[in-house]
Amino acid sequence: QVLFALNQTLLQHESLRAGSLQAPYTTEDLIKHYNCGDLNAVIFNHDTSQVPNFINTTLPPHEQVTAQEIDSYFRQELIYKRNERMGRRVMSLLRENRDRSFFFAFGAGHFLGNNTVIDVLRQAGFEVEHTPPGQPI
């Protein structure tokens, strides 16, 4: 699976470099949508937008199964579990220090797709508000 994932990642990068594959969004798109608090925009609707997409309909059936397994693994291990760990850390700080105020800042990856840090905190009963750029805190 590791060899398959590496080969698929390299093929995607070669296709991007050759111009036969378009990137779904640019760095500028990421920055603009992050600053606007619009991380549910079309470019971020795929849960694993941080992870190369290994699922490709041109792959033979046995490789499509491998691609799906890797995609599921990455989604669970690199996105969902990471956000759950981050959410638990935040909740622990808040619960252990009820008399203190906190400001938390996260990278854009913690807000992409489903099961974000915000989702984890809200599911635990916390109220979370987005502060847009330029708004006083």
Automatic annotation (TrEMBL):
Report the main location listed first in the record: membrane
How is this protein situated with respect to the membrane?
A: Single-pass type I membrane protein
This one is known as Metalloprotease TIKI
Lineage of the species this protein comes from: Eukaryota, Metazoa, Chordata, Craniata, Vertebrata
Say if the entry is tagged with keyword Signal.
Answer: yes
UniProt record similarity statement: Belongs to the TIKI family.
The catalytic activity of this protein is classed by the Enzyme Commission as 3.4.-.-
Q: Which domain of life is it from?
A: Eukaryota
User: Which class of enzymes does this protein belong to?
Assistant: hydrolase
Q: For this entry, list what GO says about its biological process.
A: negative regulation of Wnt signaling pathway; proteolysis; Wnt signaling pathway
What organism does the record attribute this protein to? Picathartes gymnocephalus (White-necked rockfowl)
Q: Identify the coding gene.
A: Trabd2b_0
The role this protein plays is: Metalloprotease that acts as a negative regulator of the Wnt signaling pathway by mediating the cleavage of the N-terminal residues of a subset of Wnt proteins. Following cleavage, Wnt proteins become oxidized and form large disulfide-bond oligomers, leading to their inactivation.
Identify the Pfam families for this entry.
TraB_PrgY_gumN (PF01963)
The annotation note on the cofactor reads: Divalent metal cations. Mn(2+) or Co(2+).
Going by the UniProt record, its keywords in alphabetical order are: Cell membrane, Glycoprotein, Hydrolase, Membrane, Metal-binding, Metalloprotease, Protease, Signal, Transmembrane, Transmembrane helix, Wnt signaling pathway
What does the record give as cofactor? Co(2+); Mn(2+)
Where found in the cell?
Answer: Cell membrane; Membrane
GO molecular function terms noted in the UniProt entry: metal ion binding; metalloendopeptidase activity; Wnt-protein binding
**Assigned GO CC terms:** organelle membrane; plasma membrane
